[in-house]
Amino acid sequence: MVKFHIMFILFLGLWLILNGRVTVEILIFGILIDVAVCVLFYKFLGYRFDRDKMFFRNLPLMILYGLNLIREIFVASFQVMAVVWNPGKKPEPVMVEFHSGLSDSFLNVLLANSITLTPGTFTVIHEDDRFVIHCLRREFAEGLEDSSFIRLLRRVRL
């Protein structure tokens, strides 16, 4: 119940800051709207304070993951450009199957989307921790089981 009070106070404070002044009318409407929003969050959206703690605990790791994803996208973009512009490098599509070893479905979906965002690869099948990936060339598939994506996601604590 203490967590409900903290959320209530934070939302009411935000309401008052955004209104820019405090009157009886603004305060009454703020309290009514605040109660409705807090009830909506807890009862219907299944809000839990533990999720916020988990989010902030993993935030530095997720920022690192995002930077790693951007780096991998740039590297893969240049590799795909080399295949397209070099007549000697023909595409040799290959399908690769592997297991990520990640137990959480959110982390597996994040991995599947990261693979699809990286040029030259996309996720064909994703079931639990099983992945089937289509790669433009065989060397794009090397090291997928122990990629930097998976190493970073294994450090996330849910």
Concise description?
The protein has 158 residues and is of the alpha+beta class.
Please explain how this structure is put together:
- The chain is of the alpha+beta class.
- It contains 6 helices and 3 strands.
- Strands 1-3-2 form a 3-stranded antiparallel sheet.
- The longest helix has 37 residues, at 49-85.
Strand content: 5-15%
Major β-sheet strand ordering:
1-3-2
Order of helices and strands: HHHEHEEHH
- How far is the N terminus from the C terminus? 23 Å
Radius of gyration: 23 Å
Count the DSSP helices.
6
Structural class: alpha+beta
Low-confidence stretches: none
Number of beta-strand segments: 3
Mean pLDDT: 89
Could you estimate the helical fraction of the residues in percent? 55-70%
Principal-axes shape call: elongated
Task: Tell me the major beta sheet.
Answer: 3 strands, antiparallel
SSE layout:
Layout: H1 2-19, H2 24-44, H3 49-85, E1 94-99, H4 105-117, E2 121-127, E3 130-135, H5 138-141, H6 148-154
Antiparallel strand pairs: 1-3, 2-3
Which key phrases capture this entry?
158 residues; alpha+beta
